[in-house]
Design goal:
With 137 residues, this protein is an all-alpha fold. 64% of the residues lie in helices and 0% in strands. It has 5 helices and no strands. The chain has helices spanning 25-50, 54-70, 88-108, 112-129, 131-136. α1 (25-50) packs antiparallel against α2 (54-70) and α1 (25-50) packs antiparallel against α3. The longest helix is centred in the first third of the chain and has 26 residues, at 25-50. It is elongated. It starts with 24 loop residues before the first helix and ends with a helix. The model has no long low-confidence stretch (mean pLDDT 82).
Length: 137
């Protein structure tokens, strides 16, 4: 009934290549997940500088591994010093939120390893901000 359009749209800018590279949904999710995990790693490093612990050291190592995996082997940038006396509770809350974002993206791309890691970090940061836990230390 209708004849297909054979000319370019009037909305296409002249000289614009129509075949520019596109990323797949999986590639976009990998980039997004790597970003969330890298942000979580940065906050984890800040917390480690304030209150070193073997658990945080292990978590930072696992986060770095996942970021490198998602970035095709490129290791994330790490910092070794903390900002001047930031509040640990605020950092744990920020880390909890970042882990939650990473969990959502990991679940949507069915990345079990990253989802488990993000869920573990959410639990650890929630525990670190729980007033009952803080009172016992």
């Amino acid at each position: 009934m209708y004849e297909p359009i054979r000319t370019k749209s009037v909305h296409t800018a002249p000289g614009t290549p129509s075949d520019f590279p596109h990323r797949s949904r999986e590639e976009e999710l990998d980039i997004q997940l790597a970003g969330h995990l890298a942000a979580l790693l940065a906050v984890t490093d800040e917390i480690r500088a304030l209150a070193p612990s073997p658990d945080l050291d292990a978590a930072a190592g696992r986060l770095a591994e996942q970021v490198a995996r998602l970035r095709g082997g490129m290791a994330p940038v790490r910092t070794s010093s903390a900002a001047p006396e930031p509040r640990a509770t605020a950092l744990h809350q920020r880390a909890h939120a970042l882990a939650g974002r990473a969990l959502v993206v990991a679940a949507s791309r069915a990345d079990t390893a990253a989802a488990i890691l993000a869920a573990e970090r959410m639990d650890a940061h929630a525990l670190a901000t729980d007033p009952r836990t803080l009172a016992s230390h």
